[in-house]
Recover the amino acids of this structure.
């Protein structure tokens, strides 16, 4: 079995990668969609699946 | 790994094993009591009265014989399963024997009246006090025993390696839980529909909000590159190990990345398992279903999440009975946590697919690298099929033939014996595989810090808020006194 990789060595190799526009868009869409859907899903659940 | 030696996956094995026990239990509907000899442990002060067969049809069977029969049955079934996994069958049988007996001993110990008896039973047991943890205290005892073995007796723990399979055990338990939930849902259809739909809503929210936030924090403030930030975001925010691995594969990260993330996920899932159910008991005893949803959304890994739901279930029901005199039906909190975890697992493949498309087309464009929709199926957690099947069968039979409800509940009680044992073995084995010494490893600080900041800084709080929004005001049905 191969030796387990050493975390410290792996982390030392990390290079700085600035956030790309597409990543910013992914984050923004993910959060924005989550917040926007919140209202819709609350309405759906209270309207069609009351308790 | 040698492809020829690769057997069935633990996922599929959980489906087949869960279905086998489920079908045998359903024999009760046709008058064939095939699993009634399975052992149950009652809350006890006199050990001689602690063990008994689950079915009255086997009332003359001594409890110890019932326990031995349960052990032999599970040994045979799981050893056949180990053979299907291409595990070392002899080592598995030996290790499973140890895992079973330690786990069951913990279960029995946790059922001691001064630990488990609820407030209304103190007089019956002639005791003046109890921790009132219900019999599920055995889960906590098993986890503690596992942590001792894993962290202080590593050679002993290593000798059990072949049977240290918490994901297999919990997934089998979840398949059985599906049938139990289906029958319960047949009796409370409106409530069950609401729980399931709101559970789906909650996980859509959790996916979208959690992932974006954790990815942003990991990239912006902790300066992790994309290869690390994406598996970290999935591991911390979605569903631990399987999400980290699926995301790592989707973005073509090196194997070391999800492995490192997974080791942290397992450790912190245990921390959550120990802390969150008690926090839920303290703060959410009046909102039991919020607590169940919170366990499903906040605790990572299938095992720890469903286990947390089971502990919260027992703690909150005991608290509600002691303080408000309200006796809730058992397992609705567990079922809520399990349903949410199952939905989360279903979406892992979809999310990994979306990330794979974004990475291969926008971030790291690779010539000829096509993302196939089939990958969604490849990453789909197959045990979910077993959960859905047993749920649908339980629900359909319960709705179509209400006259059979009594027999159906008796059948599920028999399946529940084995579900409880799979759960307690999950707790023990999670403890054994949780190596806290990893936290002392050089370089882990930065990775652990982003994990701690995200998990305790906002994941569990956003999870609580989402659970509150969708589940507040919903309570489990009241149990018969």
């Amino acid at each position: 079995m191969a030796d387990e990789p050493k975390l410290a060595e792996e982390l030392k190799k990390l290079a700085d990668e600035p956030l790309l526009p597409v990543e910013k868009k992914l984050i923004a869409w993910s959060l924005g969609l989550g917040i926007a859907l919140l209202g819709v899903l609350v309405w759906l659940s209270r309207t069609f699946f009351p308790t | 790994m040698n492809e020829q030696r690769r057997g069935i996956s633990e996922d599929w094995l959980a489906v087949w094993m869960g279905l086998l026990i489920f079908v045998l239990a359903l024999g009760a509907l046709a008058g064939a009591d095939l699993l009634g000899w399975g052992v149950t442990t009652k809350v006890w002060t006199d050990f001689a009265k602690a063990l008994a067969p689950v079915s009255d049809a086997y009332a003359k069977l001594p409890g110890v014989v019932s326990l031995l029969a349960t052990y032999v049955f599970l040994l045979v079934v799981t050893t056949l399963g180990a053979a299907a996994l291409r595990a070392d069958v002899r080592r598995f049988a030996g290790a499973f024997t140890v895992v079973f007996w330690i786990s069951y001993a913990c279960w029995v110990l946790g059922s001691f009246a001064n630990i488990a008896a609820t407030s209304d039973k103190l007089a019956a047991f002639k005791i003046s006090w109890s921790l009132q943890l219900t019999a599920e205290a055995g889960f906590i005892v098993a986890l503690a025993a596992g942590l001792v073995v894993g962290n202080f007796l590593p050679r002993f723990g290593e000798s059990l390696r072949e049977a240290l399979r918490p994901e297999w055990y919990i997934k089998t338990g979840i398949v059985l839980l599906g049938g139990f939930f289906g029958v319960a849902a047949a009796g409370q259809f409106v409530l069950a529909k609401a729980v399931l739909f709101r559970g789906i809503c909650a996980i859509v929210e959790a996916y979208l909000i959690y992932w974006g936030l954790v990815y942003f924090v990991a990239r912006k403030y902790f300066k992790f590159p994309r290869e690390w930030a994406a598996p970290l975001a999935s591991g911390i925010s979605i569903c631990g190990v399987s999400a980290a691995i699926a995301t790592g594969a989707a973005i073509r990260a090196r194997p070391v990345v999800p492995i490192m993330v997974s080791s942290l996920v397992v450790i912190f899932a245990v921390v959550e398992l120990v802390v969150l159910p008690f926090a839920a008991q303290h703060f959410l005893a009046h909102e039991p279903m919020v607590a169940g949803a919170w366990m499903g959304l906040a605790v990572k890994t299938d095992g720890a999440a469903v286990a947390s739901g089971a502990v919260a279930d027992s703690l909150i029901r005991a608290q509600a009975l002691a303080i408000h005199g309200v006796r809730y039906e058992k397992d609705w909190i567990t079922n809520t946590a399990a349903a949410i975890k199952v939905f989360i697992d279903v979406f892992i493949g979809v999310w990994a697919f979306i990330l794979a498309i974004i990475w291969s087309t926008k971030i790291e464009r690779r010539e000829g690298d096509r993302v196939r929709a089939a990958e969604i199926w490849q990453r789909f957690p197959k045990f979910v099929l077993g959960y859905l099947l047993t749920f649908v069968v339980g629900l359909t039979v319960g709705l179509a033939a209400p006259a059979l409800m009594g027999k159906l509940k008796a059948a599920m009680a028999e399946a529940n014996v084995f579900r409880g044992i799979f759960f307690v073995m999950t707790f023990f084995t999670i403890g054994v595989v949780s190596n806290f010494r990893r936290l002392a490893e050089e370089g882990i600080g930065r990775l652990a810090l982003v994990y701690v900041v995200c998990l305790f800084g906002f994941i569990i709080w956003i999870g609580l808020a989402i659970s509150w929004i969708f589940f507040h005001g919903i309570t489990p049905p009241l149990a018969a006194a």
